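Section 5: illustrative case.
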C-alpha cells in the first residue's frame, strides 16, 4: 500500500476487508487516492475488479485466437497435403467395387479415406488437433460471454455486478478467474450500501 496512506485513527479511512483483499499486483497498477469516503473505497475496489476481469477477458481472447489459428492450419494441412496423399489409394479401393458415377462410389471413397487417415499417424494427429481446436472455440464462447457480462457490470449496481461475477463458472487452476472473483467480492462489500452513480450517457429520465 502507498506510504502516504491516511491515519488509521480516522474512522472513515480504516481499511476494510474489501480493501485488504486487493492483490499487490493490482495495487501496483491502480492509482490509490487518499481514502476520504466510502465512495472512494468503492471506486478503488471497482477499479481493481475491472482490471482483473479485463485480464481474464484478454486471456480468453488470446486462447480463442490460438484455437482459431490451430484449426485453420490443421485444416489447410489436411486439405492441401495429407488428403491428396491418401486419395489415390482410396479412389482405387472404391473403383474396385463401384462405378465412379454411382453414389456408392463416393461413400466408399470417403470410408476408405477415413480408414486410411486413421491408420496414418500424421493424418490422425492432424485431425485430432483440428477437432480439439474446434471444441476449444465452442467451449470458450459461453466463458467469453460471461466474463464480458461481468466486466460490463463492474461499475453498475453492486448486487448486479456480484451476480454477473458469480455467473462465471469456476475453473480449477484458473488464477486469473479466482482473482477476478475475489475483487468482485471486494467491490460488492465496498459498494453494496451505496447508490450506483447515474450513467451520464442515458437520458435524464432513465438515470
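Designed sequence:
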Amino acid at each position: 500500500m502507498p506510504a502516504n496512506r491516511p491515519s488509521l485513527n480516522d474512522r472513515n479511512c480504516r481499511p476494510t476487508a474489501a480493501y485488504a483483499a486487493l492483490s499487490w499486483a493490482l495495487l501496483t497498477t491502480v492509482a490509490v487516492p487518499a481514502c476520504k469516503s466510502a465512495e472512494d473505497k468503492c471506486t478503488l475496489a471497482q477499479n481493481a475488479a475491472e482490471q482483473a476481469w479485463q485480464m481474464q477477458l484478454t486471456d480468453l481472447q488470446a486462447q480463442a485466437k490460438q484455437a482459431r489459428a490451430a484449426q485453420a492450419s490443421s485444416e489447410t494441412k489436411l486439405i492441401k497435403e495429407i488428403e491428396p496423399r491418401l486419395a489415390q489409394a482410396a479412389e482405387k479401393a472404391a473403383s474396385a467395387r463401384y462405378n465412379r458415377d454411382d453414389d456408392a462410389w463416393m461413400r466408399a471413397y470417403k470410408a476408405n479415406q477415413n480408414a486410411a487417415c486413421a491408420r496414418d499417424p500424421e493424418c490422425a494427429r492432424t485431425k485430432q488437433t483440428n477437432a480439439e481446436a474446434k471444441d476449444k472455440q465452442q467451449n470458450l464462447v459461453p466463458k467469453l460471454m460471461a466474463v464480458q457480462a461481468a466486466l460490463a457490470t463492474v461499475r453498475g449496481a453492486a448486487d448486479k455486478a456480484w451476480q454477473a461475477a458469480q455467473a462465471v463458472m469456476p475453473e480449477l487452476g484458473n488464477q486469473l478467474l479466482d482473482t477476478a472473483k475475489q475483487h468482485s467480492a471486494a467491490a460488492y462489500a465496498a459498494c453494496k450500501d451505496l447508490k450506483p452513480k447515474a450513467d451520464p450517457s442515458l437520458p435524464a429520465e432513465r438515470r
